[in-house]
RNA sequence: GGUCUCGUAGCUCAGCUGGAUAGAGCAGCAGCCUUCUAAGCUGCGGGUCGUGGGUUCGAAUCCCGCCGGGAUCACCA
């Protein structure tokens, strides 16, 4: 974009006038605020010292030199250390025709393209997905798209946690109360059926604990917990009847997950099962012990001592020689690094596991794997309800499938009330409502800073007006409608007419500027690893468009060149919105 | 207690690699649909950017202290 040109020219001027090297990337160039005259502003305070001039004179000197170098500069003015530059109409108009098509931003030529393995979702197979999982899935998928848009190669991975005490609990409950119930016979998704038995187990276990006076039902010695632990031992031995049940229940859950993934438009290049990887890491730890990086206690357990790095002593192998969570993560990280030659490994996991990943990275480094520095724990905040954290056991969760249904229904209600899209076939309307409902949900979740906890208030539900996904979808549909009406009336968009010498309105310059910053925006989103950047950019763009063309007419403009410029801007806006929101997984309807 | 993190309008959030008068949306009030989609637009009211210092031409943004919320520190995952 032209700001890079401007930065380069300014850098050259600094070296000519004051013999100082200034990196073009470090020069601050911004859109001029609307209450000052000018199109873009260069902040010249950093040059004041080298110029040995007052800020005003420094800006004046740079401005004069720039005006000589760049013919597109019409005039400039100086306010304190701010150099405000105004370009000629012809210069502005040339920018659009020189800009690369939006489609090309999706795969820029990146010479620093990295191979990134990005793990996300990673659910437990004992209960259905809830709103917290949705945040994980959307962030993970969208982050992968953002990386791709910045030119990286991404491998999306999912490690399904299909083994352990939690699934044994549901197996015990199913054996006791299941009566051969299946998802088909119960008429529910497999993950919901399994979730029912998990809750049943927990409830019954609490009752047993209360009767027996056991304090902690979780790790206490209730008969039910003993059964569950016995089943886990049988599973590890590979007892056929246990394996059969385990396979059956897991396949139900995973089928259910896959339905939800498909509905959300979330996918994976590689799916791992913890049952296949849970033994990994043991040999690595034993090797590390032999090499003297680790310690062994008298009872045989193996530890790493990270107290000198501000952490604690952590166990890596139990006294019976079995692995723990950390051991498995060491094993899978090494395998993943070797399998994919990954430059970077990203784990999308909630912020309650910051400590765990801190230990993982430091342990890997201690074991001699220097690439541990390339591990990023992409930790996101939790979704809170007005009454506090979501807790599966207390039933204070927002179920993912229910929420998706509700969003779709709300979209349908609003659409019907407004009398929109009534002429579409029922199937199309259904698809539209799904797209809008999901647009509202995805935008709601992705527009906030991933690091922060976010609040979801079910009683107020998610908005469809204002700074929302549907607003951006609406803007896109409106533009499509204008373009369609135009072509019906024989007014086609002609890219060549753009060169005509017609002044752009200030708002149109702002819109054009925003459109031209798309590549910088995707780069920023990738560097900050934040889909929220994309969401906020899209909203600003849509808002600018709506605001401007509420009053100004596009198709009824009598001047052919002006009309064509507006059509071009409109078309470009629609393409940009579709591309940007695509990074968030939000579909853009042509009608709504 | 140690470590990490968050605190911006009544509410939900932007802005944070320091820049000009701190922005949106929702909620409230007042307007705008025989004219390209009103899921929209325009206007009004609403702020000691938790607090006290420091760094400098300049701090919501960087550093330190304090106050308040959250997370975490298992032979669980």
Fold and architecture overview:
This protein is α/β, with parallel strands linked by helices. 53% of the residues lie in helices and 11% in strands. It has helices at residues 2-18, 45-51, 55-69, 89-98, 131-149, 165-177, 183-186, 190-212, 223-237, 240-264, 274-277, 282-290, 325-340, 354-366, 400-418, 426-446, 469-488, 506-516, 518-527, 531-551, 560-582; strands at 29-31, 40-43, 73-79, 82-87, 115-119, 153-160, 270-273, 295-296, 302-305, 313-317, 344-350, 375-380, 383-385, 388-389, 454-455. It has a five-stranded parallel beta sheet with strand order 7-6-5-11-12, sandwiched between helices. α14 (354-366) links the parallel β11 and β12. α5 crosses α19 (518-527), α8 crosses α10 (240-264) and α20 runs antiparallel to α21 (560-582). The two termini are 34 Å apart. The chain binds one RNA strand of 77 nucleotides through α14, α15, β15, α17 and α20.
**Which outline best applies?**
globular
Major β-sheet annotation: 5 strands, parallel
SS field, number of helical segments: 21
Number of strands: 15
């Amino acid at each position: 974009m032209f700001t890079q040109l401007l930065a380069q020219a300014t850098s050259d001027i600094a070296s000519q006038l004051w013999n100082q090297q200034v990196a073009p990337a470090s020069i601050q160039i911004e859109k001029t605020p609307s209450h000052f005259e000018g199109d873009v502003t260069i902040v010249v305070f950093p040059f004041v010292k080298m110029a040995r001039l007052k800020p005003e004179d420094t800006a004046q000197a740079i401005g004069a030199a720039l005006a000589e170098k760049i013919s597109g500069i019409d005039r400039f003015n100086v306010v304190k250390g701010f150099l405000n530059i105004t370009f000629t109409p012809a210069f502005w108009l040339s920018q659009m025709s020189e800009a690369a098509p939006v489609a090309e931003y999706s795969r820029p030529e990146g010479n620093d393209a990295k191979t990134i393995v990005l793990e996300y979702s990673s659910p437990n197979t004992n209960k259905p997905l809830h709103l917290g999982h949705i945040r994980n899935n959307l962030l993970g998928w969208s982050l992968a798209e953002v990386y791709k848009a910045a030119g990286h190669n991404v491998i999306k991975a999912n490690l399904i946690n299909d083994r352990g005490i939690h699934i044994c609990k549901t197996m015990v409950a199913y054996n006791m109360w299941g009566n051969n119930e299946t998802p088909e016979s119960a008429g529910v998704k497999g993950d919901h059926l399994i979730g029912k038995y998990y809750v049943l187990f927990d409830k019954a276990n609490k009752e047993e604990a209360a009767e027996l006076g056991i304090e902690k039902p979780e790790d206490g010695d209730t008969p039910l917990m003993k059964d569950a632990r016995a089943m886990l031992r049988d599973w590890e031995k590979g007892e056929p009847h246990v394996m059969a049940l385990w396979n059956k229940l897991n396949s139900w859950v995973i089928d259910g997950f896959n339905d939800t993934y498909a509905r959300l438009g979330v996918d994976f290049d590689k799916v791992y099962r913890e049952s296949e990887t849970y033994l990994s890491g043991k040999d690595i730890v034993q090797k590390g012990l032999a090499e003297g990086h680790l310690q062994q206690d008298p009872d045989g357990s193996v530890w790493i001592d990270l107290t000198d790095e501000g952490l604690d002593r952590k166990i890596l192998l139990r006294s019976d020689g079995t692995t723990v969570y950390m051991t498995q993560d060491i094993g899978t990280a090494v395998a993943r690094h070797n399998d994919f030659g990954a430059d970077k490994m990203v784990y999308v996991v909630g912020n309650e596991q910051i400590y765990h990943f801190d230990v993982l990275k430091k342990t890997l480094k201690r074991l001699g794997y220097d690439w541990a520095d390339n591990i990023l724990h992409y930790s996101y905040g939790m979704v809170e309800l007005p009454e506090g954290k979501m807790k599966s056991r207390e039933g204070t969760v927002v179920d993912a499938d229910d929420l998706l249904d509700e969003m779709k229904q709300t979209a349908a209600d609003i659409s019907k009330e407004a009398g929109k899209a009534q002429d579409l076939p029922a199937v199309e309307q259904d698809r539209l409502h799904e797209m809008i409902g999901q647009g509202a949900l995805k935008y709601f979740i992705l527009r906030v800073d991933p690091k922060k906890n976010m609040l979801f208030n079910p009683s107020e539900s998610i908005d469809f007006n204002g700074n929302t996904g549907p607003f951006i979808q609406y803007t896109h549909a409106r533009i499509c409608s204008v373009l369609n009406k135009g072509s019906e009336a024989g007014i086609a968009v002609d890219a060549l007419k753009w060169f005509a010498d017609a002044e752009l309105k200030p708002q149109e310059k702002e819109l054009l500027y925003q459109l031209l910053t798309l590549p910088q925006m995707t780069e920023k989103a990738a560097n900050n690893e934040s889909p929220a950047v994309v969401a906020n950019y899209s909203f600003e763009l849509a808002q600018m468009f709506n605001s401007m063309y509420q009053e100004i007419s596009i198709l009824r403009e009598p001047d052919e060149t002006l009309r064509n410029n507006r059509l071009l801007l409109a078309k470009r806006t629609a393409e940009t919105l579709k591309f940007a929101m695509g990074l968030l997984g939000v579909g853009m309807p042509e009608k709504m």
